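Our consortium's second objective concerns turning raw sequence data into structural hypotheses that experimental partners can test. To show how far this objective has progressed, the report includes one record in full. It was chosen at random from the queue rather than selected for favorable results. The single chain below, 224 residues long, was entered without modification.
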Amino acid sequence: MPYYPIFLDLNQQNVVVVGGGEVAERKIKNLLTYGCTIYISSPHLTPHLQQLVAIKRIHHIPYESLDTYMDTTFMVIAATDDTKVNTRIASQAKKHGLLVNTVDQPKDCNFIMPSIVKRGNLQIAISTAGKSPALAKKIRKSLESSFPPEYDLFAELLGIIRTKLLSQDQPSSKNKVIFQQLVDSNLLEMITHKNWGGIQTTLQSILGEGFPIEDTLTQVFKEI
């Protein structure tokens, strides 16, 4: 049975990670970019995880208290090197109705983590439904070269323009045409080469004279 793809808003949500080794460290490094509060439970932590606890970026909790913390938790990741412990954690989390992922144990998960190409707000998720994480990783690496860092700025620009256009209460059919013109234009190439004049001219031709183009550009490109 295939998995249903979905993106989660973890901002201000509680996430529990069980395990203190390199795998747990890798998971936590990724989670820290999504605004969640992270609790870690393990008798032994890597030096980096110890440092994160010391500066209160993450919070260490005793294993015996896990069940109590699950009452206010959104998601649990079991990342120990003991499959039986991971299975027990997964079962415990499911009883609380939580999202749970166990590393390298798909049968114990109710969701799996894709391999991700991330360019700011642009994220491309690759999954093989847990059949081959190595293949997902290979595909991710091949895609990374096709999506340079400028895609982040391009997506940010499009997002600001979209918000301003929608506030003007124009017909959705008109906005749809504009959005498509923006995506099909050579704005991305201009952003890559920092062709600010060309960007302004292109936006003006698509958005019209009345659109606050200069204000929009300064919101995205600090060097203008």
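The partners drew two points from this record. Residues 150-166 form the longest helix (17 residues). The chain has three domains: 1-113, 114-147, 150-220. Both points have been shared with the crystallography group to help prioritize constructs.
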